[in-house]
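Archive entry. Fields below.
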Amino acid sequence: MTAAPPVTPAAAAAGPLALCDGVSRQFGEFTAVSEVSLAVRAGEIVGLLGANGAGKTTLIRMLLGLLPASAGKVLLFGAPPSRGTRRRIGYLPQGLGLYDDLTPEQNMEFSAAVFGTKRAELPASLRPYAGTPVGSLPLGLQRRVAFAQALSHRPDLLILDEPTSGVDPLGRARLWDTIAGAAAAGAGVLVTTHYMEEAWECTRLVIMADGRVVAQGTAPEIVGTAQVTVVATPAWADAFRALEEARMPVALAGRALRVPGAEPAEVQRVLTAAGGAAGQQARVSAAPATLEERFFQLAQPGSETEATG
Amino acid sequence: MTGRPVGPVTSPGTRADAGDWGTDEISVLYQGRLALDKITLRAVAGQLTAVVGGDGAGKTTLLRCLAGVLAPGSGHVRRPSARQIGYLSAGSGTYPDLTVQENLDFRASAYGLSSAQAREQSGDLLGRAGLDAARDRLAGQLSGGMRQKLGVIAAMLTSPRLLVLDEPTTGVDPVSRSGLWWLIARAAADGCAVVLATTYLDEAERAAAVLALDDGRELAAGTPDQIIAAVPGTLRSVAGRPPGSDEQRAWRRGGRWRVWDPPQSASGAGQPIQPDLQDAVTVAALARELRLAGSLR
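PREDICTED_STRUCTURE:
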């Protein structure tokens, strides 16, 4: 990774690279995306989070110009999506978008020809595999080739769809270093992930549920003061059964249980009523929610809209 | 490494050591390279064991050996009889052309359960997993998360003593993942020994025992607390990419950088931090990489 120059104030002030303003998309009667507004500026990493079916992919397809919006405005670099804007985007799809029968070198060459740019060099760590068909490389290497390809035409906007799925922690840290390097060099990044740990790498998060934005802000802003109830007990299996019979959303964490969306008093009452080991030895307390637990609350149908910023 | 099980080695199918399954130093040679190198794993009744590692680490090979789908080249596997094992292979293990209910009925009949029994067993699980309304949908038309939940329910259907789940949560969104975790906890609460492969360290942190693999080798093993306590040297957190020789022992996390200082080395600037499981596994991977490159003894 070469050191990247910091984002100049001029670039940051030039307006958002990607802008959705009240964007909706219908498929027949079905509303996949409903009145979504978001912006990605130079130097920013925006994390787009949502359950499957929340509308993330439809939104990305509109940003790429593959799908027109039914209502609202999509602007890329200040203009509607077009072939011209597509040139300035680096897109990493979930399926990686590489040709299995071509080598990493040939994939890069093809990509350069499509974008009409000079072919970029493979990163040094990938050069030993330059002549091997991509299909016979391990998935981890394929992912790095796809990254190199998405970045090869020095895009101003990166759109990454679950870029680190299946990668070990050290490999993931290195991919995030690449993403952060691109942002520090002035690119804007829109990234989806199902892994909440990675959300902390983002400058800002946008959480979608049922086609709408249900929260926006930094990870600490979104977690806010949300709390969950924690049950510490040697008889976790008894406590688990008692709480599940009471239809509480109980989760196992080591030998403790976490119950989002239920007050400690309520949980204590259920455990006491259950009697036996479940009731006697349990210590029930409140603890700060994790981002994943907060996300779970926000993603429930009928969750209040609470955009924070 | 602490936590190695010592105990009678029994052949598959025996119940001499009922409720305590696992592998003892198994190795697997695949296409001329060691896919697994003397791997020991313990699966205990009523307990969840997580196998972590990236693509190609050996998770699937280990789970296939444990489930009896693959025979290791050497070492021993202790497992209950095939009927008492629930195995979910990577990529869901359901039949896309059958409906949700047909998948469960088929599984039940293969195991000699009547479909009435199967429906009684699966009814509550389907309801709690949010699949009740999808009973008549083709499995191939379900979302990834729903299909994985169906796969786990199918594996749990026959009340196995050992449940082996290969990456049930990879690529699954957090809402479906919480449903999957509910099913997994439920199986452990019912006394089943559960072994699950995952690439997510925050999930592994919920398990009673963890085995981290890298390139077919054991990277770390024990309870999450034991693995964290076994981290050699110290960790510090710095705001930006550290300069000089620190860089090769550093990685990015949560918008900042972690630097690992091996034992007996001078620590540089930064805030000392207590590692968590993700840090511990990252340090183990980094140390292995540095040793292989000859820059760490």
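CURATOR_NOTE: The CA atoms of residues 45 and 189 of chain A lie 5 Å apart.
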